[in-house]
Specification:
450 residues; ten-stranded parallel β-sheet; Pectin_lyas_fold; hydrolase; hydrolase activity, hydrolyzing O-glycosyl compounds; CBM5/12; Sheath polysaccharide-degrading enzyme
């Protein structure tokens, strides 16, 4: 979807497109140091006995602490004073206002969490602005709450490693969740987004990554996983902009019944950045195509891999109705990979003409090979004797006394190591309840056989 301005910004920067990056930015090293949760609470109790506010004492201690809030004013105060390792726990109820977090970053080993049930509802009073705005707030997690009745749901500016998990976002004039101003390594997971873009100007994307025509916005490596986006999302379900790289869009359910045609929105996913993986998504109800790439300037809109997606194009109108529509494809300068495990019903086909479909394993399917006929006059050759491989050495790190077995109820952050299935695994980012397994883009990285 092409656009050059958004109403909530003073002006849209228009920066000439640089050469596309040759390699993604490396993630900052992360480490994990266990903390005793009771230390902060004990300090708070002592402070109360001494006459000081418990919340202030807990913040001064800098320990992992749960701050319980029940009113909008208490929520504002907690967001303003948040410290690494804190959890802000929302009671069920309605919190009215535009809530902001500025400069209150967590760390890789001690993220800040804003947590509540779906019955903890954040909304604005007028329907304007953002419900929740994170600025310079690295390593935050927003978990479980509902955000509604605003211009935008969650805005993430200049904040890396922000995880949005299991939230519900709806009843908005514009997009649901926006990563902007070089906010990298973000995750939107297990969330529901619907009824966006209610002003019907085609700016109601479900998840929006980057900025239009601003190649300095390097909101890279954003992952959009296992969400339900739609119905009545009045814009693309996911729109990733030129200048961004290395993201992953996987396991989502898209419903495109809200597509307006304004600003060229006519697909569930529009990729204008580079080197994205789009896999295992299911889409229904679109006006034209399912998944698209576009090139806003040379060298962008390249490197995307589409695999394992299913597109239902029944009801799409006009010509050029493809599950995957690739605007520019050049095997050398702008490759795009479409594998044969993508499927489609309805429409005009899986992919537009000229774009090859390759085997899902990335290699050509070999043809049958004739067995050679042995020559009976040839002497029999001795058969090689199998030599067993030597037993692998037991890694010393597997004997680390601090290692524990993986638990489905434990929260792990990037750098945490666990034992599971006879192996040592290391978490790449915040996770809970995801079983360690061999997956290229999964949260767990296999480290060693133990």
């Amino acid at each position: 979807m092409a656009r050059t301005a958004r109403d909530d910004e003073v002006a849209t920067r228009s920066i000439p497109a640089p050469a596309p990056p040759s390699a993604p930015r490396a993630a900052a090293p992360r480490s994990h140091h266990p903390r005793a949760v009771f230390v902060g609470a004990l300090v708070g109790v002592c402070a109360v006995l001494a006459g000081a506010p418990a919340s202030a004492a807990a913040n001064d201690a800098g320990s992992d602490v749960v701050v319980h809030v029940e009113t909008a004013n208490e929520l504002r105060a907690a967001l303003t004073s948040a410290t690494p390792g804190q959890t802000i726990e929302l009671a069920d109820g309605t919190y009215v206002g535009n809530f902001k977090v500025t400069g209150r970053a967590g760390t890789a080993s001690a993220p800040v969490m804003l947590r509540g049930s779906a019955a903890a509802v954040l909304r604005t009073s007028s329907g304007g602005g953002n419900v929740l705005h994170l600025t310079d707030a690295d390593h935050w997690t927003v978990l479980g709450v509902t955000l509604q009745h605003a211009q935008k749901g969650i805005m993430v500016d200049s904040s890396d490693h922000v995880t949005i998990d299991g939230v519900t976002v709806h009843d908005l004039d514009m997009e649901g969740i926006h990563f902007r101003s070089s906010s990298s390594y973000g995750v939107v997971r297990g969330s529901t987004i619907h009824d966006t873009g209610q002003n019907r100007r085609g700016m109601g994307e479900g998840v929006y990554v980057g900025s239009a025509n601003d190649y300095s916005d390097r909101s890279d490596h954003v992952q959009i996983l296992d969400n339900t986006i739609g119905p009545r999302v009045r814009g693309e379900n996911v729109d990733v902009k030129e200048g961004t790289t290395g993201g992953r869009i996987a396991g989502n359910t898209f419903v495109g019944d809200g597509l307006t045609g304004a600003n060229y929105d006519d697909s569930w996913v529009d990729v204008k950045g580079n080197d994205y993986v789009v896999e295992d998504n299911v889409g229904t109800a679109t006006t034209k195509s399912g998944f698209q790439t576009h090139q806003q300037s040379p060298g962008w809109g390249c490197g995307t891999v589409f695999r394992g997606n299913h597109a239902d194009l029944n009801g799409a109108a006009g010509s050029g109705r493809y599950a995957i529509e690739v605007t520019v494809h050049d095997p050398v300068t702008c490759p795009v990979t479409v594998t044969d495990d993508n499927t489609v019903v309805g429409g005009d086909g899986l992919v537009n003409p000229g774009v090859p479909v390759v085997p899902a394993d990335g290699t050509p399917t070999p043809g049958p090979t004739e067995e050679p006929t042995p020559d009976p006059t040839d002497p029999a050759e001795p058969q090689p004797t199998d030599t067993p491989d030597p037993e692998p050495e037991h890694p010393e790190e597997c004997d680390d006394p601090t290692l524990t077995a993986w638990s489905a109820t434990t929260v792990y952050v990037g750098g945490d190591r666990v034992l599971h299935g006879g192996s040592l695994w290391q978490a790449r980012w915040w996770t809970r309840g995801e079983t360690p397994s061999y997956t290229e883009w999964g949260v767990w990285q296999h480290h060693a056989l133990c």
